[in-house]
Structure formats: structure tokens, C-alpha cells
Write a structure and sequence with these properties.
Blueprint (H helix, E strand, L loop, with lengths): L7 E5 L2 E10 L3 H9 L1 H5 L4 E3 L6 E5 L9 E10 L3 E7 L7 E11 L2 E9 L3 H23 L16 H7 L2
Antiparallel strand pairs: 1-2, 2-8, 3-4, 4-5, 5-6, 6-7, 7-8
Helix pairs in contact: 3-4
Length: 169
């Protein structure tokens, strides 16, 4: 099964970003909890530890492996329950800083998550794009009571890589 890529390219603040949207029939506070509370976050991607008030947390992407390495996420902006902006270093290249932005808006009982990540070029986009499609679909599955394990990585990567490489070339 191959899924249609939903991400799009956007230029912002002198950087190129890949942007995704997902909608939830849920109040904004509930979706905020799903993307910020360690127990809820772990259902679809990973977990964090530390004190967010310090401006940084340690994140482990447990959806990839139980022994996933810890990544430091620096909290740049937090406006609960509407906006979370964090920075992290690429695990493949410490010189590359990933800027992640999660913006939530609620209208008529539907909350929209607009997620973006900075992407410096086509080579990174070919894995980052399918990766976020996969993880955001796992978030949707977790929040709708579907089987998160049924979200199949092979439907995203490398199936969507060409789309993202071309989008960022």
C-alpha cells in the first residue's frame, strides 16, 4: 500500500520547511496533551524526561527502538495549548539544527495540528518527509483508538521519498 504524501514546502524566516496538517475531532487541550505529555507521546513516537521549565528536555524516539539514543530538545517557545517550538540537532549531522513547530487551532470541535520542520535540502527531505508522514499518521491512529502498529513504515519509506526529494530540489 502506498499513501499519497501530504507535506508541502514552505519558506519561512530564511529557511525551507516541510509542513504537514492533521485534524482531530477533539478539543485542543486533548490534542495538546497527545503531543506534550510523556505517556501520551509514547503511544505514537517517543517520550521525554527532564524539566521543561529549564528550557530543555531529553527526548527518546522509542517508536524506532527501545534503546533509542537520547536527543536534547531545546524549547524555544511554548504557548499552551496553541504553540510549541523546539530545536534539536540532527542525529546524523550535529551541525544541522532541526527547527520543529507544532501549532494547534480549534474550530467547531475540530483541532488542526500544523507541524513543520526545517529541511536544508533534498537529501534530507527524502527521509524526513516520509518520516513525519508516518509519525503523524501514528498520532492520528493513537488519538482515534486505531492500532498504531498497523501504520506500516513501508507504505511511507521509500515509497514517498521521490516526492519529497523533488519537492525540495
Amino acid at each position: 500500500m502506498t499513501l499519497t504524501p501530504t507535506g508541502r514546502r514552505e519558506e519561512r524566516d530564511g529557511q525551507t520547511h516541510v509542513v504537514f496538517e492533521r485534524t482531530f475531532r477533539a478539543p485542543i487541550d486533548d490534542v495538546w496533551a497527545a503531543i506534550t505529555e510523556p505517556e501520551r507521546l509514547e503511544r505514537w513516537i517517543g517520550t521525554w524526561s527532564g524539566d521543561p521549565a529549564s528550557g530543555r528536555v531529553d527526548f527518546r524516539m522509542t517508536a524506532e527502538a527501545e534503546d533509542a539514543p537520547v536527543e536534547v530538545f531545546e524549547i524555544r517557545e511554548c504557548d499552551e495549548p496553541r504553540l510549541l517550538v523546539v530545536d534539536s540537532r540532527s542525529p546524523d549531522d550535529a551541525d544541522v539544527v532541526w527547527h520543529l513547530r507544532l501549532a494547534l487551532a480549534e474550530a467547531d470541535g475540530v483541532t488542526t495540528l500544523r507541524f513543520s520542520q526545517s529541511v536544508p535540502g533534498a537529501e534530507m527531505a527524502e527521509s524526513v518527509g516520509p518520516g513525519w508522514e508516518y509519525y503523524l499518521d501514528r498520532l492520528v491512529a493513537a488519538e482515534t483508538g486505531s492500532d498504531v502498529a498497523a501504520v506500516d513504515w513501508d507504505a511511507y519509506y521509500p515509497a514517498q521519498s521521490d516526492h519529497y526529494r523533488e519537492l525540495f530540489s
